[in-house]
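Example record

One chain of 81 residues, shown exactly as stored in the release files.
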Amino acid sequence: MENFIFCNIIERKQVDEEIIFESDNFIVFTDKYRKTSCGSICLIVSKKHIQNIFYINNGDELLNIQRKIGLAMQKHTIAKE
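Predicted structure tokens for this chain:
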């Protein structure tokens, strides 16, 4: 699966991505192709290949990451107003 874009980002073969958070199990980066009025959209990607979200074993970690990223983005957006 070396042509899979998320694998290339995780393995740092695609260096033009803005990685904003990383843990042992997940990586978070901005989607440079999609923007909102508040800024970039963040993608949270599992470092392990899974069929879909229902197969994630570490859901608590995923929710904690979502919360951290959401709060940071909210703070950043409010600070710019």
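Notes: The mean pLDDT is 84.
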